[in-house]
UniProtKB/TrEMBL annotation:
Position of the signal peptide: 1-26
Cross-referenced Pfam families: Fervidolysin_NPro-like, Peptidase_S8
Name of this protein: Uncharacterized protein
GO molecular function, one term: serine-type endopeptidase activity
Residue ranges of every copy of the Peptidase S8/S53 domain listed in the record: 154-417
Ranges where the Fervidolysin-like N-terminal prodomain domain occurs: 43-103
Organism from which the protein derives: Thermus islandicus
Record bears the keyword Hydrolase: yes
Superkingdom of origin organism: Bacteria
BP GO annotations: proteolysis
Coiled-coil residue windows: none
Active site per UniProt: D163, H209, S374
Keywords tagged on the record: Hydrolase, Protease, Serine protease, Signal
InterPro entries: Fervidolysin-like_N_prodom (IPR054399), Peptidase_S8/S53_dom (IPR000209), Peptidase_S8/S53_dom_sf (IPR036852), Peptidase_S8_Ser-AS (IPR023828), Peptidase_S8_subtilisin-like (IPR050131), Peptidase_S8_subtilisin-rel (IPR015500), Peptidase_S8A_fervidolysi-like (IPR017306), S8pro/Inhibitor_I9_sf (IPR037045)
Amino acid sequence: MRKVLTSLLIGLASLLAACGNLSQRASEGPAPLNPALATPPERQLVVGYRDEGNLEAVSRLLGARVIATLPELKAALLELPSGLAQAEAARRVLGLARYAEPNRFDRSPIPLPNPRTAAQGIAPQAAFNDPLLPQQWWIPKIGAPAAWDQGGVGRGVTIGIVDTDFDRSHPDLCDQPARTRCLPGFNAFTLQAFAPTAPFQGQQNRDTHGSGSAGMAAALSNNGQYVAGVAGGNGHPSTAARLRPLVIFGGQNGGYVGDFGVAQALVWAVDHGVDVLNNSWGGGGYSYLLKEAFDYALLHGVIVVASAGNDYRDAYHLPSGLPGLIAVAATNPYDEKTGFSTYGPWVDLSAPGEDVLTTFVNLGTGTWLFGGTSAAGPVVAGSAAVVLQVLRDNGLDPTPYQVLRILQQTADPVQGPSDVVAGMGAGRVNVGRAVQMARGLQSPSQLPPPGSQIGILVLNKGSDARPGPGGLVTTDLLPFVPFSNVTLVHQSGKQMYAQTSPAGPARFLESPPGQYQVLVGGPSQIFLGGSEDPVQGAVSVLPGGEALAVLRQQADPYEVTPGNPLARNDTPQRATDLGQLFGPLPPAFTLSAAFDSNNLAQFGLPQGGPDVDVYKLSLQPEQTLALRAASRL
């Protein structure tokens, strides 16, 4: 069921190797700090390597020290020498590393638009005995009592809360004093696992966000205390979904652990059996590392939910904008988009996220009015856990996309202007109807069709490269156009976004089957000066199938000038050093590109030809160099 793409998709099967490194470190001695936290952020570079020899070559070329490795993702964190900028280092290893990018520290829990600790009065509801349940308007809105009445309570499913720590002393989050419903967590600041009975990982009066996320998803329900959660069981901790804290915010200064620390936490969680990951955090930009970390989760059948962001507009957001993740926007009590919620064609579902009563850190009242897409995301995470439990009770093993489709097919309409509604996904989640549908599915053939895997390979127009039975057939040193922006537009209007890399295609896992328009723009000016050659194509894929589309784009991947990505390599002083860029060169190779001055789209650079490119390489004694040139229009 969990098939991988062809060899052109960078050997995703290698990502399925078993993990042992992090769990082993977690049991050794006193808690060390994550070594990344002792290194200046501006000197940290994340690289994707091909094998250990390749990593050694990359670090040697840069004069860098390997701080940490994540073998499951073939990723490493390097400390750059003083004076070497991250962008320049990434350009130098363009032909060696699978990718290279800064280890970003600028992401955050999605800020709350209006946090308060008072409860609001709402009409009374269901038979569960949680005293504040009548004040949780969002519980009946999503049909949770109907789900509970049908046995959909989350039993046996593990939800990972990727956030600050949540307050495990709160009786609605972990039963007291045994805390049996909570599982050991992972602290990315120390790279250590910790027991449910361990002290709070951070500062309890500061790091409150995770307690709200955990409560929305699965606060213990029908236990006579506080509030209820979607997958909170029915009166006993053993009937509820299990919670596993994955701490990426907090630490000594309340900050973000960095992208590499998040990837370490995600791999640890996947390898320790998490079923659902909730991500109420994020920011802008793109990260190859986080993309591969979430791909790792998807390839292991983990359902990944991410909040869409509180940007008030149609905007891209990471990680919720990554392919295969369930992106969640926020609605108000009237099933309208909240004023703050981000929305757009990449959103999958909506859920309540305005003034929703749930758990707070166990100081004072123990509850608060949570808000934002940070609250909406865990509503869907808890709903996914409930649906997964019901399907497993029926002996079924659904894929993440199949669970998403059940939630989408049973969602209620969002109200409002048509252009806004179109960006709110399939509708507002209705877990009661989703459980009803799931209960009626008794065989694999009755499940919704599984998701598909798509690769978009962007080759240079001038390259001799072509797909072959064993992979790409080429003599080019760099046949791909890296850093191109690839958008897939599904026949339904759903959009997905990823980037190509120096190693090959943009990858889209757990994608809707059907027909797509393919839009390619870029590549990034930081590396290749930009391109004025957007291209379009099409691809179609069957349910559970794989598809690879090959497009060709005009670009010059060899226009790399040391120290200045926007200067042309048109003089001996600015020559591109092929040996430095690609390491040991093969006996024969080709440089194929669109050598065109108009290809550089940076404002202020002269346009028009001819384009003069100067290269240099080193020869061994008695070695000769033969050149052959060819051109075509």
